[in-house]
Amino acid sequence: MQTNATTSTAVTTAADGKPLFSTVLVANRGEIACRVIRTLRHLGIRSVAVYSDADAGARHVREADAAVRIGPAVATESYLNVDAILEACRQSGAEAVHPGYGFLSENVDFARALEKAGITFIGPGVEALNVMGDKIRAKNHVAGYGVPVVPGIAKPGMTDGELLEAAAAVGYPLLIKPSAGGGGKGMHAVEKPADLPAALATARRVAAAAFGDDTLFLERLVTTPRHIEVQVLADGHGNVIHLGERECSLQRRHQKVIEEAPSPLLEGLPDGPEVRARIGEAACNAARSVNYVGAGTVEFLVSDDAPEEFFFMEMNTRLQVEHPVTEMVTGIDLVEWQVRIAAGAELTVRQADMELSGHAVEARVYAEVPEKNFLPSTGTVLMLDELPAGTEGRVRVDSSLVEGLELSAHYDPMVSKVIAWAGDRAEALAALGGALSGYTALGIETNVEYLRLLVNDPDVQAGHLDTGLIERKLPGLAFRRIDHPELVAAALYALSLEAQNNPAPVNGPWQGRNGWRLGAPAPRRVSLGTPDGGVVTVQVSGSMASGPVAVTVDGGPRRAASLKLSEGGGAVLTLDGAMWEYKLAATAGQPEQVYLGNDGWSCRLDVLTREARLERVLAAIQRQEGVADPEVRSPMPGTVVAVPVADGDAVRAGDVLVSVEAMKMEHHLVAPLAGTVHLTARTGDLVKADQVLATIHPAAAGTTDSSETATATDTTAHQGEGA
What we know:
This protein is 26% helix and 30% strand. By secondary structure, the chain is an alpha+beta fold. The protein has an eight-stranded antiparallel beta sheet, sandwiched between helices. An eight-stranded antiparallel barrel has the order 25-26-27-28-29-30-31-32. A six-stranded mixed beta sheet has the order 1-4-3-2-5-6. A hairpin with a 2-residue loop joins strand 12 and strand 13. The relative contact order is 0.09.
């Protein structure tokens, strides 16, 4: 067991004088583990982190008072391994376990195992986990307690045939939902009967892989839906209260992206307070129906066309990813109350005391590339600045990132959350936009620019939200493109690093490798690979040490340029008298990549060797001639979860060849052209980034399918660890 130097000394007592726990183990990772550890430190409770081999250097491991290794990187052998967590409790002397969200947080068998071992589960009782952990059972259960539910068919153990037969009575469009789990995993909207069989097959596979349970049910798809959830707190003394609602309608593939409290929908209704009271009481009734204890969330579906009506979707028997917005408008630390309630304390807050102050908005930061269909991204954090100066008190960042951290492909790509508070919604959105503008994480690719575009969208600003808004808006979002200033800054930065790594030799210039010659310095050419696969050449004439240099970009006009570097990765580029401020970082040694960012935007530029440049140029020529690449490659490291074709099959352009799961997402790799497929991957294979998984031998002339322009990679159901 690893012990850190920040061990807490004081042990806080509950309001009734009973002592809280002395040691709590946090059975999770990433930003939620860091967030729980922060409250434990505030309470004077010793915290114990657990980690897989992939997380040995993770931030939550560094911040905890002690840490225990629980297994290899694969989650089923570490964070989902009940025996490993119990052994970590025994090693560390933990009296209680906080599960965070995702992983084992809603696992009834885990709760039972802790109970048997005499260790407190900081969460609800077995009854609540058992009933609410199954959506079919939960829906039928709460309906008996006066909680309105969405029309549909929800019976255990229904086969595909039974679901197909029942679908007509449910009506189209409908929604397929897995009975187990949450976070939008395995959910599929179906518009017409012909699409239902294939959607059921995919939903079952995703549900089985994510939850070990492929039970499905059907619901009527509510048009223009808004996702509104209510935070509840309940103690073991019969007290149940709600802490207002959160609006979680900005979603992509059923995964929340931006959340806020309170809901602008209810805020805009003349009878908003009355609707808030009714939906809050319905949430409390759902909690009372299972003798709920601790913090939980009841999720409702509300039609934008009829906002006075709401329908129960599910209850999450854990902390939510978006809990900070509730904390910021109520002033209540939900993790603290989870701990206190688990220790036997009685709620000191009553419903009549609850008041919402101001408005809070949260944005989830993912390591992903929105312009490439939200493909998850791995990498090493080279430079980090998450909290812009001057935002203290109004902006909060819950993060798992530290400089030097290497992101693993084994886990969810969410890396942090940026939360802003202000007196009203407009000010809160402005504060969030400003915070995202100053958010910089170089070395990894993130969705920060995408979040900024969403926050500033007119419909979002006006509060006109629904769960389909992002999908409609995405094609029209104007992502920033790399321009000459960024190319020049990257080239000058690469040359400056090269000069640092190859100083002038002490035995004379003839021994050096810096291109020194008599007379004026030779022009230097820096070939940069752009994110779209292109190549740009920046020529630099003159010495950077003696003042401005002359630069040209791809043989364009000569321009005067200089780059001034400062501590912390800051840089100021002067180009023909105009100035740009950037953050810059690069891979160690002779730089192979340069990372550059400002105003919430960042990019990676590859510093190409002659061989790499030639390879890109040839690839560009092929693309210009319309020649499709016959090789189908994995976009990132992952596991092959399905191969729906056989070696030697005739396929059409766009047919799915291989499905790869990486960073809790399933990627469908499709045929780029018609022909015969040759497979080099099998189900269960662990694959590397850019590994060839299949090759298409083109069909004869005249037989090419009309869909040859199909996208090579289609990212499907987001499988985040928490909703």
